[in-house]
From TrEMBL, chain A:
It comes from the Eukaryota. It is found in: Cytoplasm; Nucleus. Its main location: cytoplasm. It holds the Pfam family INTS4_C. The keyword Lipid biosynthesis does not apply. SUPFAM superfamilies: ARM repeat (SSF48371). It comes from Phoxinus phoxinus (Eurasian minnow). InterPro entries: ARM-like, ARM-type_fold, INTS4_8HBD, INTS4_C. The keyword Signal does not apply. Keywords: Cytoplasm, Nucleus, Repeat. Belongs to the Integrator subunit 4 family. This is Integrator complex subunit 4. GO terms for biological process: snRNA processing. Residues 832-972 form the Integrator complex subunit 4/Protein SIEL C-terminal Ig-like domain.
UniProtKB/TrEMBL annotation, chain B:
One of its GO terms (biological process) is snRNA processing. One of its GO terms (cellular component) is nucleus. It comes from Phoxinus phoxinus. Its main location: cytoplasm. This is Integrator complex subunit 11. One of its GO terms (molecular function) is metal ion binding. Residues 16-233 form the Metallo-beta-lactamase domain.
Amino acid sequence: MAAHLKKRVYEEFSKVSQQVSLEEAPTKKLRLTKPSKSAALHIDLCKASSPTDALQYLLSFARKPVEAESVEGVVRILLEHYYKESDNSVRLKIASLLGLLSKTLGFTPDCIVDDAINILNNEKSHQVLAQLLDTLLIIGAQLPDKTAVIQRLIDVACKHLSSTYFGVRNKCLQLLGCLGTVDMPLGKETDAGPGAQTSPVRDVQSLISDYFQDQDPRVRTAAIKAMLQLHEREMKIQQIIYNQACKLLSDDYEQVRSAAVQMVWVLSQLYPESIVPIPSSNEEIRLVDDSFGKICHMVSDGSWVVRVQAAKLLGSMHQVSPHFLEQTLDKKLMSDLRRKRTAHERAKELYASGEFSSGRRWADDAPKEKVDTTGVNLIDSGACGAFVHGLEDEMYEVRIAAVEALCSLAQSSSSFAEKCLDFLVDMFNDEIEEVRLQSIHVLRQISIHITLREDQLDTVLAVLEDSSRDIREALHELLCYTNVSTKECIQLALLELLKNLTKYPTDRNSVWKCLKFLGARHPTLVLPIVPELLSTHPYFDTPEPDMDDPAYIAVLVLVFNAAQTCPTMPALFSDHTFRHYAYLRDSLSHLVPHLRLPGRKQTASLEESGVGSGSLDSAHNFLQDSLIRVSALQNLETPGAQDLLEFTIRDLQRLGELQTELAGSADFCATYLRCQLLLTKALQEKLWTMAVPLCLKQNAKVSTAARQILDETYKLEFLYSGLETQQIATIHNVRLQAKALQLILTARSKQGVDHVLGICEKFLQDVESFQRLFMTELPHFQDSFVEKLLELMPRLTACKPHDLVKIFQTTLRQSRFIHLKLPEQIHRASATIIEPTGESDNPLRFTSGLVVALDIDATLEHVQDPQTTVKVQVLYPDGQSHIIHPKPGDFRTPGPGRVRLITQVYLSHSAWTEPCQIEVRLLLAYSTSSCKLYVSKPAWNESMDGLPTSESSIEGTIHLSKPVKVFIMPKPARR
Amino acid sequence: MPEIKITPLGAGQDVGRSCILVSIGGKNIMLDCGMHMGYNDDRRFPDFSYITQNGRLTEFLDCVIISHFHLDHCGALPYMSEMVGYDGPIYMTHPTKAICPILLEDFRKITVDKKGETNFFTSQMIKDCMKKVVPINLHQTVQVDEELEIKAYYAGHVLGAAMVQIKVGSESVVYTGDYNMTPDRHLGAAWIDKCRPDILISESTYATTIRDSKRCRERDFLKKVHETVERGGKVLIPVFALGRAQELCILLETFWERMNLKAPIYFSTGLTEKANHYYKLFITWTNQKIRKTFVQRNMFEFKHIKAFDRSYADNPGPMVVFATPGMLHAGQSLQIFKKWAGNEKNMVIMPGYCVQGTVGHKILNGQKKLEIEGRQTLEVKLQVEYMSFSAHADAKGIMQLIRMAEPRNILLVHGEAKKMEFLKDKIEQEFSVSCYMPANGETTTIVTNPSVPVDISLNLLKREMALGGPLPDPKRPRTMHGTLIMKDNSLRLVSPEQALKELGLSEHQLRFTCRVQLHDPHSDNDTLGRIYTHLKSVLKSYSIQHVPDGTVIVESIVIKVTSSAEEPNLKAILLSWSYQDEELGSFLSTLLKKGLPS
């Protein structure tokens, strides 16, 4: 067989050039244009004089991919060489290559199973054996449904499990874990066969669990991993191994312990309710509680890897009894054998006794009652203090894991949330910022369960002075969701926030927003302190505060938001407060809600409340109706049609402004309709019937229209998220139309044939790619421009350019207007630059030629993949423009769909005589080649002759935000 | 049986002058060599006359190990090495070696220059002593001589503190020195691997305390300082120069950085500056945060903390000052205290324990009027705060370390007897290992059961493996036959044939014979036949042959039947077996004595 094959390969190899030149056998042509892989390999291997050479050849061979049809040939050659080879390392490499090759797409490796098992049985070297088993594992993974093959592989693995080399045992266990099934007893096959071994009928699980006690720690790890693998493959694991797994928790080796922790966790999830006995007593507890205690114990393990793992897993044990859960935060303190209260308890008592924040005196923490010495258990096997230890750990990885676990457990138990509050608040003082930030986030997530006491709030608020912006903003976010208990708390929070405002004026927006929620959440607590906040007096008139003071605005935001649900509050306002309300309602409408004020004209409020949230449905209906009305139009050239289109566009735009939820959809439709309108108008122009030289002016008008439509289509495609393929196809259709229009214009204005020819070809390519991309959508495009073109396609390719242009022209005019199906969820990407505000009159001065950093703070909404697409553009007054790519780290995600960009752009320019304004704006970069619809290339393809990368990829940018003007003044350098 | 003997010369049921003698495997080691803070007479230093009455210690000690630079662990070192006389190696970690002489010099200055003591070690002696020091690294195994090796583990506590494992052959001792199981702002937590020593010598300062989380205390401390500074007040923090001072500095420095505070922080100069220099150098000994960020900035290069000058104390506006000494009994801290005590806006924070009689102790107890230097009275209006930052392991921490190391015995030192008692009970109860707490001069002896390594010949091993299952079960002992050869200080286990060959001896066969009398009416041959069938039914898995020449052979055992002419019914059964089949042979003889079944 092998000899025959070799001969064939030789033949093929030598025939190559001949075949190509003669083109006798067209069926074989494709395969033979390149020298076959297998042949080349064979030649190389035969040339190799020493094992080192052979190894080199194999290594270089492995770097190049092999196409699916030649895999088998290559495999045969490799196997043949394998039999001859005496060097272990070469055999090892061949074995690994076999595995690699069987992964090739489109190749079914069952044909090499026999050979692989065969060489496995004759192999002596342990390393090669291990590698062969690995190869078998890969093969088995490729053939998940061939039970016979799998069974054979498992038998092989069982046989080699008794090997003396750890690597072989490892691989066997891995194989059993990946391929074995629990339900089917092992050895059934062999029993049935002739000369059956007398192996007892055992299942994979008990077989693997035997190796939990192996002498080699690596094998023990592999055994546990294999068991976990079984679990991952959704095999039912029996509870019997629980005790064994628990014993492994005290193994000497960290990787074993780490795997064992996982194993115990898995079992606790599988059998949470089953009962296990407590050793050394005759009590029994639930398995999940027992394992919880054991994993808690691992939080004080010697290896930090295990500690991280244990802390992480604790977070997902939701079924544990509350009694055990609460122990994790309890570390019974004592001092000189006397029971001592924790600082947390003391703080609570102090607070309860009415004396808040007294200085601590010497021996204030003096221990109280005497502890019964027999009752103190220093290392509880239970969960005692696990989180206290975890949160105090040396490695911040462990601390973060513990914080996250606390969060997840607290979310499912509100009593636990209450208890862990103190600990989380303590973490605000961690030395590593990441941990502090994480604990603030966590507190926010569980804040629905808790109400902060005054002393706790005090600790929380202390962090407001942190110099890190991220921390402060996270804290503002937290305060937005916090419940507080007393009016003093509100006062305290306000005070601290105002302090924050004076210290870091850039936090203005964030502080205001925070107060908005704080007010809206606690109207009854704000009510009693309103006079004080607004500094009104029952008898005297107080001076009117400065309306531009951010602190005053902050107070007003708090009060107005509280007043929204508290109708008695406005009675406490003084006259100027009402005036300020009107002003703020206009200028900061997102922070100041509508209030029903006594004595105000009700009409204004009626109008506003008319478009309240209740009207969402009606707005949606309106949008649908408008679209249906438009879709009734068949031909846009009918007299009333354009008017209707114009009205609809206007309606939709207005709707988008009123109803923010529908803004995306409305804008999208309006833009699409405008494109259509422009197109129709352009086609209607009289120029089409006029002689060319007479209509230069119209020509220009049409070409701008075409340009505009193109731009709009790019916006439609890349600015909106949530589009379906059909809509994208519709957009592409419009784009093709615009391109056709451009083509016709060029053909008319320029006389050179060559020029037109090039454009035509490109256009036809575009049409083809449309067909390729939107094959499934084509039924929706009856009578459309594209469909007509595609029908004519065979003719078009043979046409002369001028005929082509003619055809385009008629098709363009005859084609039907495609109606847009309203997509479900469309969001328009948008961005707002918060900083710089553009209001400053003081120019930013710097020495020309040097750089100055400009802080930019912007929020982005509904932008997909902002790290790669969002750019900052700086436009200088002389028309120079720079595009800056912000670092990926500058993007933060405070919430779903929202992205915050905080970055610095570096400006520089030569000297100016006057300060001048530059414009800064955000851009959305797009590229048609990065379109989501393109399929990624298959990995095993020849990299050289893939798809041409230059395929009509157009890159450009869309304006994402309004420009902001910044006054700058580069001064000449002084010498 | 081999023994390990441990005798504390200091720190036995006591805190101070740590000095523990260990003799293990014929080696004598001194662990720490400290002074006692409470005494000014001879009791200040350990009683070295316990080791030898006269003459030098060199020939009695194999090495001296110092765990860290605190004076109660190294204060007597120059006295021991230069005045008593010891020339052998002294082991300590690099930071300890660097900082130790600074403290010793300071100690010497105070005793000699201030108190005017004579007959004390000199600067030159400190220098000479330090020349004998051999520095070691963490986790580095140092061979003191061919048999004795030591290895250091991280202990937290102070910069450079180490736990040491001392090993002779398979016997080992771990000495913890002082250690801390919870990390602090500048150091990590102690760590040791599962080394299973024969005995663990642990400190037990906080044997009866379980401490609260450190974070609350830190937060309180920072909050108090912050509030005072914001009010415009001045904060005085009396500290001892090394250890806690650096932790507090780091704490305040990072807080200042985080909160963007501008008030100045001063550190009164002195030996601290020198020590700070070493803190900057030994970054690898600090905690994770400092180690990770030192590339951008060394945390000990303080941005906000500046050197203090006497004149600054009168500057207006808020400030924070660290000043020595820690108990406000003398020196700069007391001077500053006097200046600031009258203003209620100010604050003093005592970060540690104060001895009775010091100003610190008085104000902590709430005394409002102090008499200073005779008639002068000082009114204390400023706020007094106590904030304990201790770096010893608490009871839970000690248990945690025991769990990590899994020792066979535990010995407690460096703590009060009463507290030790409690911990001892707990340890014995929870780990069920024996725990000792000797007083000074009392010797504890521990019997060890060291394993003796024997080389086994590969052939023998393979042969034994072939007999049993494919894999030896590590959990179960197995008997095997072989010959133990003890020659040239080495032990080898070889097969008997090889042993004979090596030793040039010829093999002797040893056979036992036994005669059993039996009443049997049958003829000799029939009796033999009956024996044969009987044995066949009893010994199922053995090969039993009935040889025609009138013998039955079971393995190597030969059975013959004879009878005398006089009494044909009384048969004498001859049994003969070789030494190797002793077990089977004696079984058969007893079996046959019982007679044959009829």
